[in-house]
Amino acid sequence: MSSKEVLTFKNKKLDTLVEDIYDKLSVLSDGESLNIDDKTIDAFGESMKEVLSHWANPRPRDSGTLRMSNIGKPMRQLWYDMRSESKTTERIKPSVFIKFLYGHLLEEVLLLLVKIAGHKVTDEQKEVSVSGIKGHMDCVIDGEVVDIKTASSFAFKKFYNKTLAEDDIFGYLPQLAGYEAAMGTNKGGFLAMNKESGEIALYRPDSFDKPDIKNKIKTVKKLIKVDTPPDLCYNPIPDGAAGNMKIGKGCTWCRHKFECHADANEGKGLRVFKYADRYSYLTRVVKEPRVLEVTK
Asked: How far apart are alpha carbons 119 and 135 in whole angstroms?
């Protein structure tokens, strides 16, 4: 996303954003035109062009740099992000890069819908800083910081049902708190789209669900300087009834899981078994699964 000229708006309020988008699009059911002007269409095309260009030409980033986008990660994961030099760190798979691309493209679609619904969008991709930690915020809508998210049906429920604070494994709430601290606002939130259904939800978390970001940053800076990694982000959980144990769900997508669990299975590390629909990363094997083992 990049800064674009702000469209004309008519005293819209953030609370009615989703309703206004749906109302705007409802005329399509009657075969009526949305009457999107050429200037808006051209700007949208340029935004999509920029997204594709940035995706195809990634800029190298120092893996040891704290940023607003990672400050809320689980501490042990962040410690490894900052300090790991292990060759067991997983590379990002091509399929994940594809997911990144259509996620970013859909974010632009969502911002377009906000604009044609008559809401004021400013400060797209503005760089901000809090306590020396920099980040690029998605945008401000109607005067409040809004983070744009696209999500699977499962993840979308966290925004739709307002339960993100119960399981914020990617640190979205600290990220939002950081952007708000930089902008001097406190009533922003997340505008999320269900990538499967097209549903939209606006989630504005309560203040008590957002951390004191300056204290959070201070704590993080202190902990990543310690030579020993913090405790496990998620404890192993049972895998079936035979006594086998596997890494927690939140560890499954972490690229440091092999280094992080190097002491599993009496120091032999994780054992990986391939099922039809998933991989199981076992920290203790009492009874070997009757599927292919693909341990690295």
From this structure: 24
- 214, 268: one domain: no
- Cβ pair 209, 162 in contact under 8 A: no
Residues sharing a CB contact under 8 Å with residue 282, sequence separation 6 or more, in sequence order:
239, 244, 245, 246, 264, 265, 270, 271, 272, 273, 289
Domain assignment of residue 200, yes or no: yes
6 in a domain, yes or no? no
Q: What percent of the chain has pLDDT over 90?
A: 88
Going by DSSP bridges, is the β-strand pair 189-194/144-151 parallel, antiparallel, or unpaired? Answer: parallel
**Confidence (pLDDT) at 93:** 86
Cβ atoms of 119 and 163 within 8 Å: the answer is: no
Host domain of residue 24: 14-219
Q: Give per-residue pLDDT as tens, 156-166.
A: 999 999 999 99
Report the predicted TM-score, pTM, of the whole model to 2 decimal places: 0.88
User: In the prediction, which pLDDT does 4 show?
Assistant: 43
**For the residues of 126-191, what is the DSSP string, one character each?**
-EEEETTEEEE--EEETTEEEEEEEE-HHHHHHHHTT-GGG--TT-HHHHHHHHHHHHT----EEE
**Residues near 232 by beta carbon (within 8 Å), at least 6 away in sequence:** 76, 248, 260
Domain assignment of residue 225, yes or no: no
